[in-house]
């Protein structure tokens, strides 16, 4: 409400440009805010306008939500109240009054039975349904309607004239009051006033009985609004259709009137205020502050559980998003919403005595209090570690989380131990998907790109442990293939199915720098974006084989996929900090450059994409066996279908294993071929030698020279490797150059028991 009062000019299109009404509303809002008591509420007294004690109840002094414009009332209260309305109150009450007195009203009966249809039929000549509804009430209360004769509305107006005459003997008190009012105000519509008084009395009797019913059920009626009331929302009692039906039956038993209740949707008519104002959490008890410092001490207590300061970053929990965030704009919006609704009041002296105004109702004042509260917020040095580690093994959705390690779906209430910075913006598919969709996904995406079933099975198992955050595997992948081979298709499927858990970084970040960066932490700023993700993709690596200076930085690859070791980095204008990553690297490449040092490739897995997808014209023209027809719409349409996301999710769930899966022979062969090709010493040695532990198995120095020449390896490297793996040189024969590496046998000579 404070926001609306301070920004009324922004809402003139909704509130209206009538200057007098504008000033009245401004005055009403100001009076309402100034009347807040120490308990944070506004005391409202209701009274009858005239001394006769009949008719509707009005809020004394107009200090209530009752008389405010609907748009304002709905905006400030729709989250706190149910707006309960007597449906078609006056026509329904008049029909029952006439029935009880034997007055025939066929048109009124028809209107009450078919109200929606009649209002719709009248909307044409009367502009809108709202105008038609007003016309019906005008006719009931004796007003004049300008319309053609012979119409349904004209006949209804004549019937209401007869009804007013017929009710005179049954309403002597109301007639007398109407006559007195008419004499005082020179009003001629005496019978119309009589009927209005009669109906308002019946309406008020029913309203008070409704209030009595709801309060008897433990609910609080906060506002009386003539033909309805506003009931505070409660965690203990939910207002349902059956409860409303019980209320109607209670009122009928007490008053004799049958009135149907309905909950009005207050969201339909609201001011377009900022969304963050709706996320405020107002404490039950108000606090009274004399300055911003006192207010900051109050506010820091409000946010202690949902805002955390850790190593230079501020995290805020967003209950509407079900996740924590350190993104500055989100954090500020959350803090503003909390602070502007914090119920911290400042005492203000007026001629009438003390009044209380919200201290943080203005954005500028709220920002001062927030700044002070953040300075007072204690540092929680272990928060980031708890936030990072608690969701490992889980995927978080809107309706809960799936834990790969237990194989179960949980609601967030079931697993309060899990915190997350990422929530997939859809519900977890508790029910398994349609098998036909799963089959289509396998056929069109995985068989089309990866080829054989054994490669697909291993890929899904590999990807399942990656999306689960199993960082201790220390594995990463190269996705090798020509353009249009399907690498981007698999990446798009991951991004669409698991938004937030998948990110992309510049592949050139992994290139070995010719000169060391003067600010190594700043050079790794991109890695901070991978702190909470699970799949990290790279594309378009700058690779020029003619230049030997372009190499992948093996030490950086080992650091990035180190199994949870700390990485030190910082972004612009921020302090350096140490963090961990659980993400798995997938490098999409057409060609692979050299890697230095080569031992970084020891945990790499290479997926080779065997096909190239082309247009029908290219397929007919070239006709090569590794060409396939391009599937238009697969990447942009099929991969963005929710049922495909659900099918993919379940494929990964079924493929997940508690231990690192054994690499399939095809992928192992492709990986080994690549590693041998780039001269990886460990892979070459593994491919050439097998340790037997038998003295009669040996490798000659001549053979070592041959291997060194063939694979372009230093002879000393091979000798050192053999010794490191368990072989021992036979010094007695070394002079003759006969034996080296006792206990080894060449892999290609494994059919021989010993060398001659």
Automatic annotation (TrEMBL):
Domain Bacteriophage/plasmid primase P4 C-terminal: residue ranges: 298-430
InterPro entries attached to this UniProt entry: ORF904-like_C, Phage/plasmid_primase_P4_C
Presence of keyword Cell membrane: no
Signal peptide: none
Superkingdom of origin organism: Eukaryota
Protein name per UniProt: Bacteriophage/plasmid primase P4 C-terminal domain-containing protein
Pfam families in alphabetical order: D5_N
GO terms assigned for molecular function: hydrolase activity
